[in-house]
Amino acid sequence: MNALSAVPHLSPDIFGPVGAEVYAGLTSSPKRLSPWLFYDERGSQLFEQITELPEYYLTRIERSILQAHANEMVTAAANCDRISVIELGAGTATKTGLLLEAAVRRQKTVAYHPIDVSETPLAEAKRRLEAEIKGVTVVPRVADYTAGLGQIAIAGERRLVLYIGSSIGNFEPSDGLQLLRKIRESLTAGDKLLLGVDMAKDARVLLAAYDDAAGVTAEFNKNILERINRELGANFDLTQFRHRALWNPEHSRIEMHLESLVEQQVTISSLDLEISLECGETIHTENSYKFHDEDVIEMLERAGFHLSDHWTDSREWFGEYLATAW
User: Fold this and answer.
1) CB burial class (10 A; 0-12, 13-18, 19+) of residue 80?
2) DSSP 202
3) Largest CB tally within 10 Å, which of 24, 68, 69, 314?
4) Residue 77 to residue 256: CA distance in whole angstroms
């Protein structure tokens, strides 16, 4: 730990969620920042750009699976009932329309409840989906989905919760399991969860997806420092850091880091905090776990679900798991 000055008698809780996370992460050893800090407005825009990059196969393959199997997924999720759709971390919901179209074909109308921490992409999702798909009603909710599904009142319908895009891979395994348990606690027996996960594969494919040639992922990673500068009055010099993506085979995960290119000190004025970084020292910003089939099934079972169906692509690079709350 290289915290040179702070206010020891003050709890980091007084700094608000962003300040508390930055305080805790940058005074820990090794230094870290939680990936939810990526998603301010600029970060959300950059991530949408990442999903369109040629190296970033995840969105493209997941979309192809949904396009091929949306009718089957909705039929299996609904069984003999009507469904409402809830999506965690929805963003602009660019893939979700495929499932909503299938739901409308089956039951004429569908209510869609996207949850995200950022209001701007939710507003875009509502505008686009209601304009493009007759029969869809979008009821957005700005919230942190890790706290549970919240008070979404759905009377007389089954709930289909979407947690796609392999977002579960950004959590430590124990935290991901706890999140799934929280989701289960908010559901009724018979409700469904569609979980999209990225499968373990050749490290070269994985590394290219998280370190693209155009440098968009690098900009996305560095934007976390820009956010701290703007919101907390820090003086990070982004030119003195570089983006690093590493494959950790022991833990089956991609790691993203920001590496300090020089020995430097950084002040974060609103936290009354100064930190030092050595040349080559990194700030760990994200893990992205890659799964094996048996790991996903075990995780779902431990969380209170049982597997109902499963879809994948021809290379088995990505998987969609439909699970039933029991």
Assistant:
1) exposed
2) -
3) 69
4) 35
The pair phi, psi for residue 295, each rounded to 5°, is -65, -40
Ramachandran quadrant class, 108 (left: phi over 0; alpha: psi -120 to 50; beta: rest): left
- C-alpha span between 40 and 118 (Å, rounded): 7
C-alpha angle 83-88-92 in degrees, rounded to nearest 5: 100
112 burial class (0-12, 13-18, 19+ CB within 10 angstroms)?
buried
Give the helix/strand (H/E) hosting 252. none
Q: What is the pLDDT of residue 187?
A: 92
Query: CA-to-CA distance for 40 and 24, rounded, in angstroms?
Result: 19
Residues 232 and 83 in one domain: no
Per-residue pLDDT for 206 more than 50?
yes
18, 224 Cβ separation under 8 angstroms:
no
Is the preceding peptide bond at 54 cis, omega within 30 degrees of 0? no
Residue range of the domain that includes 261: 3-29+217-289
Local structure of residue 169 (DSSP, 8 states): G
40-81 pLDDT, tens per residue?
Answer: 889 989 998 999 999 999 999 999 999 999 999 999 999 889
- Whole-angstrom Cα distance, residue 32 to residue 23? 10
- Asked if 164 and 193 count as a contact pair (C-beta separation under 8 A), the reply is no
257 is written with which tokens? 């880091």
- Residue 315 belongs to domain with CATH number: 3.40.50.150
Comparing C-alpha atoms, which of 52, 59, 43 is closest to residue 218?
43
How far apart (Å, rounded) are the C-alpha atoms in residues 126 and 139? 8
Instruction: Specify whether 168 is located in the same domain as 64.
Output: yes
**3-state DSSP helix/strand/coil percent for the chain, to nearest 5?**
40, 25, 30
**171-193 pLDDT tens trace:** 999 999 999 999 999 999 999 99
